[in-house]
Amino acid sequence: MGLRTMRAATLGLLILPALATFALAETAADSSGRFTMSPVDGGFLRLDKQTGAVAMCARVANDLACKAVDDQTKAASSDELSRLEAENKELKDRVKALEESLETGKPTPPGGGPLAEGPPGGKAQLPTDEEVDQALDYLSRVYKKVREHIKDLDKPLPPDEAAPPPPKGAL
Fold this sequence. Notes:
Elements: H1 3-32, E1 35-40, E2 43-48, E3 54-60, E4 63-68, H2 78-104, H3 129-154
Antiparallel strand pairs: 1-2, 2-3, 3-4
């Protein structure tokens, strides 16, 4: 055998156990669903989906070794956890109130507090034709005043009130 063939055979013998170990680990991860493997430079990362632990796995001598990766994320303070727990409780209470309002048919106010009672007798009264006419007359007067004001703004200024021309050289 030539030198090239010997190198290829040696390389194959070195890589084959690593690939077999990786395939075995990947098969175990698929069957239990607990681990996820992701290839990276120098090996692969193993994520434990149950605990969240991450390990860097690489070939060391003839074995595959995994070393835990330190979690460098900032842990939440107890004040932050308390705040989040209180917010979570408030949101759960709000969801419960909304679900109850859907079941009973009674609307819930946006803030979640008690609703103001409706008009006496339980029915709202529609405006009369006279009240509607009054509202429309008022809106017509407002519209006419706004339209007249816009026309006044569009009129050119008389020559005596016109602003003097800007000095030469000014933009």
